[in-house]
Amino acid sequence: MGKLNKEQRLEKQLAKKVEKQDAYQQVKLQETPEDDFNVANLIQTLEDQGQQIDSVKTQYLRVHEKARIVQEPETQAERDLQERKVAATVMKQDIKKWLPIVKKNRESERIDFTKQRNVQISKISDTSNALLNNHLGVKLQNAMEEVEKVEQKQELNGQSNQQKSNLQFYNDLKMKKISSIKSKIYKQIKKKKGNKEKLKLMAQLTPAERRKEIEKLRLSRAKERITLRHSTKNKYVSQLLRFGGDKKSLKQQQSFLNNLKHQLLAKAQLNELEDGEFDEENFREQAISQLEQELLDIERREKEKQNNFGFLDKQKKQDLQQSKSIAQKLLTMLKSGNDDAIQLDESENQEQNSDDNYEPNENGDKDKQKTNVENNEFNGRANFVNETKQLTETQKKKIDAKTSLSNYLNQEPEKQQQQNKIEKQLTSQEEKKQLIEGLNIKNIKQKYEKQVNQKLTKQDLKKLQSDPDELLQQNLANFNLVLDEDENENAFIDEKIKDMEEELPPEPANTKGWGSWAGFGIKEKKPLTQEQILQNKIKKIREVQKKRQDAKLDNVIISEKRDAKFAKYLVPKLPSEFANSQQFDQLHTLPLGPEWNSLTSHSALTQPQIVTKAGVVINPVRIPQQVNKLI
Amino acid sequence: MVKFNTICRSGQERSTNADITKVYRNPNPKVHPLAHAREYQRALVATKVEKIYAQPFLGALNGHSDGVSCIEACRFNLSKLVSGSYDGEIRIWDIPSRRTLVQLNAHQQMVKGVSFSRDGMRVVSSGEDKTINLYDFPQLLEQSNNTFQEPLMRYLSKGTLGNVDHNYQLSQFATAGQVVQVWDYERPKPIMKFQWGVDSVSCVKYSPADSNLICGTSMDRCVILYDVRAESAIHKVAMLNKSQCLAWNPIEPLNIVIGNDDSNCYTYDIRKIEQPTMIHKDHISAVMSVAFSSSGREFVSGSFDRTIRIFPFNKGYSREVYHGQRMQQVNSVSFSADAQFVYSGSNDMNIRIWKVNASQKVGTINQREVNATNYRQALKEKFKYNPEIKRIAKHRHLPKYLMNKKKQRQEMKESKNRKQRNAELNNPGQYEAPKPEKQQRVEQFIQ
């Protein structure tokens, strides 16, 4: 029942609605015929009558159009929508002004926010106004204002400075141009002019001042000489820098002194070997004359003044004094005829050979003791001297390491027995001789002693005695073979070829029937001969060689195998930002460090994209005033 | 591996300290086979060292007796910060000394928003008690002992209020709420009202570069753009979830970032607001507050998941995450004006100060150090695709609840994708290609 009722109600409602609508339409229909008089109709009738009413007609149409718009009111929602659409277009138009700025910021490699002009400095008034009530606060405020004024002035000065620097730059450019003029005549004229002016100036000065000026000039010239431009492999400058600017360098001088001593000693030794006696007087005379010459030379050089650099002069002085003292010591010792003199010489000599520090006075005593100890240890020397006396005359002249060694070896078993006797027999003169000889032979002995003790048995020693020349020659030949360059190169090439062979793909196992057609009527292939296999291999190796990086490098082997340890330096997958691996490599193989770049490019490469600084307020972006005016 | 047939040299030429030697460099990379390996090692060390020296937390400002609801750093003075709490208290802080300068009982109820004027002379606050207070900042500092200071002006709003934001150029400010209102210093009533849609607006922000544009997020899940000149809204976009907060990019005033309740942040280009240009994911709970760095290159977000994250403006994932054992839900975050520090106000009544770059040294740094750090950064940038370096640089320690939630989300995402894929495979031709996620997140664009 309820349902029916509901339906009935609905029907009734619908009926009512329909009735209403009908009534509305009736009213409308009633209205339209009443509205008979119409401007449009009037114009129509007038036109039909043939009257000229064009102006009236156009005027009517315009008014009618306007009225039509006014007559149809919009809903609030529609009006809002229109408004919003207008606002959106305006906003979008307005926002375009930011696009160039945003684009510029996004594309720029570096944005430095610390360079903003509008950096605020906090004032006292910002922190508290309470301070201003006090006299102190007022004073401080005034002081701050004054400081600001001064800063502003400084800024202005800075501007003028900039102008000056600009002028300077211009001037520099001009001078550069002038300096690039290559005409000799121009330069001569210029030089003459300059010299004249300088002379005029010098004439006005007092002698003391003049001297100072000259010294200054010298200094500047010396400095110029030592600049990098002049130091290119120039022997003079390199020595000047090293040893203090003498023609004969200190090192040369000292080595000369040493050589002198060596020569003297060698002479003495030879004399002794030939004559069996040491001609002491002749030796002394020669030594004294040469040393005196050297001393004179040193004195002359001390008087000279070549450098104006303090540090170079100092070093030079020290060095000269040292060499002088050495020479003087030698002289005094030789003149006095003291037996210890030569011994002392030797100790100093040793020092200078071992050390380049030139501090003989401090360590001199220690070294003396050392040499004494060493000399006492080596006792076979006296016997060796005795032996040489017994040699024939032809052998005497050809004294060398070989013979001395063989002699020494002969003496070895008897050495210990003779030791005690020798010690007693030694006189002071003999001792001196031993020292001289020992120093020369000592090195040779030390070299060979170890080898001999290790390798040679008693039987071998006997063989050596019988035919030492042959054995030694054999050994030398072997030694030469080892050192042979060709041999070494061949070994290296072999190694390289081996490396290439390893690169070849493994050959399949030669099993018969596998990898070939089978069946009736098929010819059997002949297996390859050894020669063919070898030639194939050589071909393959040549192909491999062409591809290798070290193909043209004779002395280098570059292994191109993949190294597992190296994998950590590589990126497994191409990042999505990059189109291909070449692009990625181009950007990521460039080293950034200062070891592989110049300092400027290093700093440029490592600049951060955004630079901010604590304490610098960054303001929101603004459109430049000039652009704003245009908008 | 390279083998050389060695050439022996005699030691005749000896160099001394007095020698002036010119260093010649060969730029050919073949001459420097170990350059890459050496730089890789340096980059590795740099990333490790950065992790070791990462100490982002600088200190906390404590004094509020209720949760901190809103904070804002002064846009003019680097040392000042204003904060409002749930009990209606406003505090002004001196950050270097970490003490309260002014304490105000400003509102009867919760403080909804605080804002500084651009010149740092005015402070505006809005409260849940439908009042807006405008303070003179120097005057506040002057009478710092008076906790019941009267504001310069007190405005009464008819409807409820949301946050307040001061215009960057004019002496105006806008408030969110049932109606978005624009107020002038001199007028007791709002000079403009924007009402569009039914529900209230939770957050409004002025464009820092353009004084006419306002953007707002509403409770009916919309992001709305208003133009003050046109005296009307421009358009809005409805999303799947509601947004709590937004921030304008100050260097690119076309872009805004909104923090959504679906734990993501979205970047919108206001020219094409139909869909977001980027989704920033990482939070696991609703984003409560976002703030842009003044350099415009990164923004910070505070979330209900008790973490702060720093996102690069053009990356989908966060660069840094900060959390503390005692830090509760973060209600508000703010960047310092020099883009060096981040401040966060949380429910645990504290305001925390964080470094933007966790391992950066605070204080004066000499040029050598600057150069060295630049080199290290460049190396890290160069080798950032390298798996080992990437792993170390990416790793962050997270509390357990975060890790678990993160894993859970990942699983959910994977299973959803799997389900989708399987459905497509089993019913070929019945499914269309899925929409991109950016489109999925937007429900409707309304003009």
Automatic annotation (TrEMBL), chain A:
Q: Where is this region: Disordered?
A: 345-397
Single biological process term from Gene Ontology: rRNA processing
Note whether Transmembrane occurs among the keywords. Answer: no
The membrane spanning regions, by residue number, are none
Give the matching Pfam families.
Utp14
Q: Does the keyword Cytoplasm apply?
A: no
Give the coiled coil ranges: 281-308
Report the InterPro entries cross-referenced here: SSU_processome_Utp14 (IPR006709)
Of the GO CC terms on this record, one is: small-subunit processome
The alphabetical list of record keywords is: Coiled coil, Nucleus, Phosphoprotein
Q: Where in the cell is it found?
A: Nucleus, Nucleolus
Return the Acidic residues bias intervals.
345-359
The protein here is known as: U3 small nucleolar RNA-associated protein 14
UniProtKB/TrEMBL annotation, chain B:
Where does this one sit in the cell?
A: Nucleus, Nucleolus
Recorded hits in InterPro entries, A to Z, give: Sof1, WD40_repeat_CS, WD40_rpt, WD_repeat_DCAF13/WDSOF1
- Give the matching Pfam families: Sof1, WD40
Enumerate the residue ranges of region (Disordered): 406-447
A GO BP term here is:
maturation of SSU-rRNA from tricistronic rRNA transcript (SSU-rRNA, 5.8S rRNA, LSU-rRNA)
- Would you tell me the Gene Ontology cellular component terms? small-subunit processome
* Segments annotated as WD repeats: 61-103, 104-136, 280-321, 330-364
The UniProt keywords, alphabetically, are: Nucleus, Repeat, WD repeat
User: Out of the domains of life, which is the source?
Assistant: Eukaryota
- Residues of the Sof1-like protein domain: 357-442
CDD domains membership: WD40 (cd00200)
PROSITE patterns given in the database record: WD_REPEATS_1, WD_REPEATS_2, WD_REPEATS_REGION
Q: What is its main location?
A: nucleus
Family statement drawn from the similarity comment of this UniProt entry: Belongs to the WD repeat DCAF13/WDSOF1 family.
Q: Can you name this protein?
A: DDB1- and CUL4-associated factor 13
Q: Which organism is it from?
A: Paramecium octaurelia
